[in-house]
Structure prediction request, 69 residues.
Amino acid sequence: MGRGRQKAKHTKVARELKYFSPNTDYNALERELTSSQHDDYSDEASKWAEYADDDDTYLAGDEQREQRA
Prediction:
């Protein structure tokens, strides 16, 4: 496909995406945002707590200096 046809196709797709407005289910969005799934992250973090190391070996030089100060 030539560059002109390719550009025209991309322009058409971009225009369709720009003006496409799907119906939003705000009730489903609210349920998703207020669900208790975000509480599971603390459980996930506690699983790996034993592997956490207080050593600053992996910090960059500036970050190490800031913590020491």
About this structure: The mean pLDDT is 77. DSSP finds four helices and no strands in the chain.
